[in-house]
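Good morning N.,

You mentioned wanting to compare the apo and holo forms, so I went ahead and generated the holo version with magnesium ion. This is what I fed in:
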Amino acid sequence: MATTVPTTPTDAPLTADATVHVGSDAAREWWRDAVIYQVYPRSFADGDGDGIGDIPGITARLDHLRTLGIDAVWLSPFYRSPQKDAGYDVADYRDVDPLFGTLADFDEMLAGAHERGMRVIVDLVPNHTSDQHAWFQQALAAAPGSPERARYIFRDGRGPAGDEPPNNWQSIFGGAAWTRLEASSTADGDAFDEPNPQWYLHLFDSSQPDLDWNHPEVRAEFEDVLRFWLDKGVDGFRVDVAHGMVKADGLPDWHGHVSMVEGSSGDDEQPTDPGAPEDGSTGAGNQGPMFDQDGVHEIYRAWHRVLAEYEGDRCLVAEAWVEPLSRLARYVRPDEMHQAFNFSFLTTAWDAAALRRVVAASYRANDEVGAPTTWVLSNHDVVRHATRLGLPTAGVRPNGVFATDPQPDEELGLRRARAASLLMLGMPGSAYLYQGEELGLPEHTTLPNEVRQDPGHFRTDGAEAGRDGCRVPLPWEAAAAGYGFGPTGDTWLPQPESYRRYAADTQYGVAGSTFEMYRAALAVRRAEGLGHGGLTWLDPWVDSPDVVAFTNRGVVVVANLRSAPVPLPDGEVLLASGELAGTTLPADTTVWLRA
Ligand code: NOJ
Ligand code: MG
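and this is what came out, ligand included:
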């Protein structure tokens, strides 16, 4: 698109405090402005036809990623695992699960990505292991108080018979966070009797026992795991539950609420709450004695030192549901991690003032510690933003959508998702994309409950739909069985019929397709250096309830979030998320212009 439009809303000078972030052309590490694409291996592409995505499937589709123009790939876990939580239950941190291939397949995929100029980040799951991990099996076969038990968090129960959990903590997936051992069991091949059985802590599923990070062996083991993958040549790690590894001394009771995605839902039709916190808090923080304890930071300082021994700016990205943003910024101090997902941004309603508030607070907090902001709109744990932004009710971020729930407006959701993505990609910092968002893919919102696999669905007795709807296998070819997910047409979760319309092959080279919009956005972002630019709010929209507008290195980004069209500023249109109406910007549309 290259239209020049004459109308300008104002000639008023920018006010100084409209500048919320100053850019820099100084030499920098690659991750500071990288666009990183999340591959969820079981749902990306299936190489062997068993209906489950795998590493050879990823290798075969690397050119899709190169064409898109991303800088790096983050792979969710592919390690040996009984798959009780889709691989976030690791039984062996140094091997590939046969479901996904072999270590040789991994090496080939890594080399293929590097040859194409893309880096690779792998997932590290240090808060808990699988109950099938050798350490946990040894702990089950050992006595209370033994060194084997000391690597996990075993405790005697409360009450005279020890049959009440050691404290009142709830699992993030629902139910108690403690499970009691059997009085007699066969663990690690040995029959074992424990007349007064202990309990073990699991912040997630009972198959995911929490490690005790006060134990030096735990610390040493994970440093070694880091080295194993660094030696293979990976470029970094996404750290699972980075805010949960250290628990408050004494494991005190907690009367607050825990959930995967914290806080209440925003209502995208509600006027913004004028009293909303200026620190950008949106309810995206997990709280309580199991989260964000000061002791976690020493772990990241140690890991930072390990990574620093390797050349090539390897990085650590924190999955930490922590608020306020100033508290999250502590994870990315100069000697700790390098990035932390900005979930406050992800959980912000489609509301101009709320978005400006969270964006400003993010730069304020991260600039203070010299870290980039790390934007994200979708991942494998939340309802895809193409659906979230089209939901009819106040619940813009439920934990999944049931077939019996009010259904999203697909067209509105896609329109807003494209606008939200262009807004995000226009901002300085790093950005994460979740596989399929470059196709505009919606959530599967009518999955039959019988096929659901998320432990969060079962542990809440079916009260929460869970995360399966955002994990449905990708559509690659509209005309093929399983929309080209793999050679047999099998898919581990059923795909909705609508996925035909989103298949990658219907979008390649098609002007106006979501894939081509993302591709163009990444190209402009790179050419203009937007990732390391600055951000200044643009008049007359500095306080607008309808519009978010800013300049970044001479590129003007305007997002219209409300129903009435607004006049476009002067400039050459570089990109737009939807059709422009003459010299106006329609509702739920973002435009990039050269001023
Ligand atoms: C966060 C991961 O993203 C999620 O998928 C997983 O269930 C939990 N951590 C537990 O590992
Ligand atoms: Mg397979």
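The chain has a mean pLDDT of 93.

Happy to go through it together on a call whenever suits you.

Best,
F.
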